[in-house]
Design a protein that fits this description.
The structure holds two protein chains of two kinds. Chain A is of the alpha/beta class. Chain A contains eleven helices and twelve strands. Chain A has two domains: 149 residues, Rossmann fold (3-Layer(aba) Sandwich), CATH 3.40.50; 155 residues, Response regulator (Rossmann fold, 3-Layer(aba) Sandwich). Chain B has a domain of 227 residues. Chain B is built from 16 helices and no strands. Classes of the chains: A alpha/beta, B mainly alpha. At the A-B interface, helix 3 of A face helix 6, helix 14 and helix 15 of B.
Chain lengths: 333, 373
């Protein structure tokens, strides 16, 4: 009994020692978007990556949730001053602040998600949202009985149009005559947090005949999923795996592995392979994907699953090329 | 006479102090309930707000905003008007400041840009309050309803302008292009460096002096001029003011324009002083915070400066608290600020009857029968 306690104490001491050694190598931090880390979507995906890194390595990650514009830059700079590195900045809205902080602290590593700033100490992670959206678009077209599907975007910016354009291409790939209704919730960042408007748009799309609706709208998506569930139609989630939100009517989720980006940033910094520059994460890199779990298993038949996976393989192999809306700001494919 | 001064001191000093202490006591209980040591939290908060130069800079930077909006609310309040449109007036004031800078020749000097941006902010903020003022004065719409509705109109207007007119090309965030460096309100740390002192960089800029000048001007205007007298008379008793030859409609218009213009100056601190571009939602919280600041500061410029400093401290110290202590999320900081507003605003007079009964009791001989208030 006593011996047991002593061995345990020694083991605990050894763990504590390795933890401190590891902490000396990397001192990671994250600054979330103003939506906060529990948005069940974009920020929460990052949070899950952060949590996983802490679970895997025992290294704690300092988290900042800014509430106003001044606090974004304040948070980034304060973390840098405290010796935190790498610092993950979540979302395109932090681009200015990251740029300023990176210039002020050239020895600190920054990782910016969803946007590119040309600084020597910034790693920019952008995603091929169009590829993932292509997959869920194809699945939507396979599932649709009415020949009409819908897309509800958040803020009307090229980044969100990229989701919509990929989705439409995927759907047309399966059924050239399918009708895709596009709607955007608004033109400001508030459009990512407006579930009631999301619900309204969804109901009007359903009235126009849509029976699968894809939301790329952050928190606005809740309204979309709810409205689809109420009407007995299918919805597709985004960023995180949102299949569990409305089990039974969530056809799938277009997973954007922003958490993986944060995890990779910390991991590579930890083993010394972190590099600045732009990294683009598509299907091949596992940056985007479609989600299949126990919540939507019943909705996706085996043939649908194999068809979608075949398309995925073709995109990775380069046999299908998906047009990127942001390459020319048009959706002509 | 003696009783009067005692009541004055109860109202002006003791009551606000007790209210704040109550708010802090309740906050401490909340912290204790969520397993945060309240004393440690207070230390972190105070250190964050005043413990180092950068923290002080942020505190005064936030304070500046609250001085502007606090004065705005107070000026209207002296005329008996409750201007809750500070948010919208500050936001549209930002449009005025931004347009003044963006449409001037970028090679001009700071001596053109900075006055121009201040005038732009004053003008747009004031004009945004003019419409509710007109509706109140000549059409009988209630100022509380119209000013709060104008906050939404301001938000919609700014969305349109930012998204469709002023958005910088190639940017996803709706923001204007960067102001030319000549148009930046000098940072205090830069000015200090010019004078040979080295202090840590922070967003604190010379707008704080503008805020202090405004406080003095508001004091002078309200208590040393004929207009100020007319405004206060209208606020105390509109009917009596009319009897005294004052035209309340004109007073409403003038007061609301001044109020809106003061709120508009928030944008000088935020945009010209720190962000250096027109952005969305820079004003959030300051307009409504100004109401609490004015209430707590008893609508007097000196009190407003003190109350604004308290709010600035809560903003910066609160951010620091959420940053330093893992048990405190940013929502707890809002709870803390809400408690201060609750006890200093909504429950403002909770202790007053008790205090007066115990500290300044009415003596029979001092209030003889037949003399009415």
């Amino acid at each position: 009994m006593k011996l047991n306690k002593i061995t345990m104490a020694i083991a605990a001491g050894a763990v504590a020692l390795t933890a401190t050694v590891a902490q000396a190598a990397v001192n990671p931090a994250v600054v979330y978007d103003k939506a906060g880390k529990f948005d069940k979507s974009f920020n929460e995906a990052v949070y899950n990556g952060v949590k996983r890194f802490t679970a895997d390595t025992g290294i704690s990650v300092r988290e900042v949730e800014p509430t106003n514009e001044a606090q974004v830059e304040q948070g980034l700079k304060k973390l840098a001053k405290r010796g935190n590195s790498p610092i993950v900045a979540v979302g395109f809205a932090q681009a200015n602040a990251v740029s300023a902080a990176a210039q002020a602290y050239p020895d600190t590593k920054f990782t910016l998600i969803d946007m590119v700033v040309p600084e020597a100490n910034v790693q920019n992670v952008v995603f091929k949202e169009h590829e993932g959206s292509f997959l869920v678009g194809a699945l939507a077209a396979m599932k649709s009985e009415t020949g009409t599907i819908g897309f509800v975007g958040g803020m009307d910016i090229p980044l969100i149009s990229r989701f919509g354009c990929g989705y439409e291409q995927g759907a047309k790939h399966i059924n050239a005559n399918i009708k895709v209704i596009h709607n955007m919730t608004g033109s400001t960042p508030a459009a990512f947090g407006n579930p009631s408007k999301g619900g309204e748009l969804t109901r009007s799309q359903i009235e126009a005949g849509a029976d699968v609706i894809f939301a790329a709208a952050g928190g606005t998506g809740f309204g979309v999923y709810q409205a689809a569930a109420d009407a007995g139609k299918w919805a597709i989630g985004v960023d995180s795996n949102q299949n569990h939100l409305q089990p039974g009517t969530m056809l799938t989720s277009m997973v954007k592995r922003v958490g993986e980006a944060a995890y990779k940033s910390y991991e590579t910094a930890n083993n010394g392979t972190w590099t600045a520059g732009v990294s683009v994460m598509g299907l091949a890199e596992g940056g985007v994907d479609w989600a299949l779990d126990e919540h939507n298993r019943a909705l996706v038949t085996a043939s649908m699953e194999s068809d979608v996976n075949a398309i995925k393989a073709s995109i990775i192999a380069g046999d299908i090329s998906v047009h990127d809306y942001m390459s020319d700001n048009t959706c002509n494919y | 006479m003696k009783r009067d001064t005692r009541i004055t001191w109860i109202n002006r000093l003791l009551l606000p102090l007790l209210n704040i202490l109550t708010a802090f006591a309740v906050t401490a209980i909340v912290f204790w309930l969520i397993d945060v040591n309240p004393i440690e939290a207070a230390e972190v908060l105070l250190y964050g707000a005043f413990g180092y130069e950068e923290g002080i800079g942020y505190t005064i930077y936030y304070t500046t905003n609250f001085i502007f909006t606090g004065l705005a609310v107070a000026v209207a309040f002296h005329a008996g008007l409750f201007n809750i449109g500070g948010e919208g007036q500050a936001y549209v004031g930002g449009l005025g400041a931004g347009l003044a800078i963006l449409f001037l020749d970028p090679t001009l000097g700071a001596w053109v840009f900075i006055p121009a941006s201040i005038i732009g902010a004053l003008l747009f903020g004031g004009l945004w309050a003019l419409i509710p003022a007109y509706l109140q004065a000549y059409r009988g719409s209630h100022i509380v309803i119209t000013t709060i509705m104008f906050n939404f109109l301001a938000a919609s207007l700014m969305v349109y302008v930012m998204v469709h007119v002023l958005r910088e090309t190639g940017q996803m965030t709706p923001q204007s292009e960067l102001f030319p460096t000549n148009a930046w309100m000098p940072f205090v740390h830069d000015v200090a460096a010019g004078l040979g002192y080295s202090i840590e960089a922070s967003p604190l800029n010379l707008s704080v002096l503008l805020a202090l000048v405004c406080a003095v001007l508001v004091w002078f205007f309200l208590w040393q001029t004929r207009w100020g007298y007319a405004i206060r008379a209208t606020g105390k008793n509109g009917t009596a003011a009319v009897y005294g030859g004052i035209k309340p409609k004109r007073i409403i218009i003038v007061v609301m324009c001044i109020s809106g213009a003061l709120a508009g100056l928030v944008s000088v601190n935020e945009l010209v002083g720190y962000q250096h571009r027109l952005i969305m939602d820079f004003h959030l919280g300051y307009g409504f915070g100004g109401i609490a600041v004015a209430l707590m500061g008893r609508n007097h410029p000196l009190g407003i400066i003190v109350a604004a400093l308290l709010f600035g401290t809560l903003y910066q110290g609160g951010a620091e608290l959420a940053f330093e202590m893992s048990g405190i999320s940013r929502d707890i900081v809002v709870v803390m600020q809400g408690l201060v507003i609750l006890f200093c605003g909504a429950l403002e007079y909770m202790y007053r009857p008790w205090l007066i009964r115990n500290l300044a009791p009415v003596k029979q001989q001092e209030a003889p029968a037949g003399v009415t208030a």
